[in-house]
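Q: How would the structure tokens look for this protein?
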Amino acid sequence: MPEGLLRIGEVSRRVGVPVELLRAWERRYGLLDPARTRGGFRLYSADDVARVRTMRANLDRGLSAAEAARATLAGARDSDTPVLNDGGQELARVLESFDEVAAQAALDRVLASFSIEAVLRNVLIPYLHELGEKWERGEISAGQEHFASNIVRGRLLGLARGWDRGVGPRALLACVQGEQHDLPLLIFGIALRAYGLRISFLGANTPLESLVHAVEMLAPSVVVVSGTVPGVFEGLTDDLREVAERVPLYLAGAAASEELARSANAAYLDGDLIVAARTVADRYA
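A: Here is the predicted structure in token form.
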């Protein structure tokens, strides 16, 4: 066992919280962020132990479990945010200079120091949003935007390796046909994996008939279809309804809407990618 990491039974003994409750807090609120051995065993750090103790203190103050978890995680994010922001600024600087070696080193540093949720929420999602805005304003070239996106994509794909292993529920993720922007869905899938689901990722521009075939082959617990380009879902309601008849279906991305989801007998995922991942995980993990 790596030095300093604990199995969940030892965490339970140290903090006086039953193992079943620790697992519930991890699943429902993302309170613990375990590392995993090659065999799939979870191992917990001193930071996990500290968060559980803070959670207990918040519960003792009279907060509900959900409120206590939000307060605990908010406190952890607030203390980490300045360092993470610095990491994001450094990443932007070196990527816009076409410096891959420095960019990989910057990513190594933040991934070694913070949870994957924190890095996604506070570094990669804001950076990719800013990257797109800079390109739209003409502050960076198309070459800089493509270079940076490809570096980030490569690292995300590395984080996604093996995300279909295990015995938990399976989520099948796809971009709707005509949608080429799959980075948001890739980030969503990594967050969803951190919350305990196995991931099958079909990626960009997935024809609906291919999605139906994958559903038949994999029998997933849930399907998420994403689209960001306006109008990309037009004319596909009947096909989406066919998917929803076979498996619970969520629609996500700027091109989706509550109205579209209702017409397709699906559910709508809105807003923050990490919150959306937790919403799905709370139901299916």
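Strands lie at 35-36, 42-43, 170-176, 198-206, 222-226, 249-252, 267-269.

The chain is about 60% helix and 10% strand.

Upvote if useful.
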